[in-house]
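G., the chain you wanted modeled:
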Amino acid sequence: MNRREFVSGVTLATALAGLPTGAAAEGKRVALVIGNGAYRNVPTLLNPPNDASDIAAALKRLGFTVTLITNASFEDMRRGLITLGRDAAGADMAAAYFAGHGMEINGENWLIPIDAELKRDTDAANEAISLQSVMLQVSNTTSLGLIILDACRNNPFAARMNRSLATRAAPNSGLGRIEPVGNVLVAYAARDGTTALDGDARNSPFAAALLRNMETPGVEVTFMFRNVRDDVMEATRNEQQPFVYGSLSRKAIYLAARPSGGAVGAEPAPALPAATSPAPAPKSSTIDPALVGTWEILVPNGRGQSRWIWQIMADGTYKFRAEPPRSARAHEGMMTAANGRWTLHALRGLSGYSDGGAYEIHDALAMITGRLGTGAWKRSAE
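Predicted structure as tokens:
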């Protein structure tokens, strides 16, 4: 695979205002890891205790103070979460990992202890742990509250449960969609409404992908989960798609070591100044041939998503436009890009703007680091 570096300039900087990026700060890290397999009232799950043990070890290597509980009762989980919430207050990062059974009942998600009976859907409030309460416990950090759930399996509790409403606790539907607030991310092993696989090895496909990726240095946390997603989809032949819920600021956050200076994912500046002294316009037209062509990225906004297109020519000129046009101003200018470094000088549309940085290409994907962060641009068919 060809690995080179690429950055796109002002378009990236503006685009990343709507993308999750940031950088980890040194500080206290705490985690609660739970793996429930030995359920007393439904068949045993083999993977969760292994998954929890291995994830706990990885988190410890990443500097977390970890509490590991395997085969946790309701009281074990309750006490563990209370302690996590106290430790998380003012910490840089707090993480909660749960492997086991989980279910949605009437729009609320529940994590199931090993001693739960759940004969009726209304028993959940007294026998299970609500995901909402877990999000609350990790929400008071200064950088990141992270919840990772491998709890979307086919659920035997739901199949046998007496339901007060016919639409409640539908069997085999996984967890429901959530909307975390603040600096909280929630990662599902399988997106809402779908189920996850246990696999035939020591770890589930999701846990195995996490273990391959979470200790990789220099990878921003949201990009780490994108790598996990792709690994799981490849391992399950697209049967299982992990999904991450929540929205972070542009500040880059790293579980493992930060990238070296100028590398992809470097911490962005806090804001783009209203007026910038322009750097000299590029005097050469040196362009990495791998960059020549058209690249695009989807950028979230208040009305959905906009499509941004960046066209780079071999003579060192570029053109940028957005669809719909009102989402970003069209502009064009000159740029150079070689040996992993780039410079840009806008001549029309955003006249006087200059920028520079680094780039990295993975086949048809360009990892683009600009003044305000990092984004993933895909080669366009146009």
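The chain has eight helices and 18 strands.

Shout if anything looks off.
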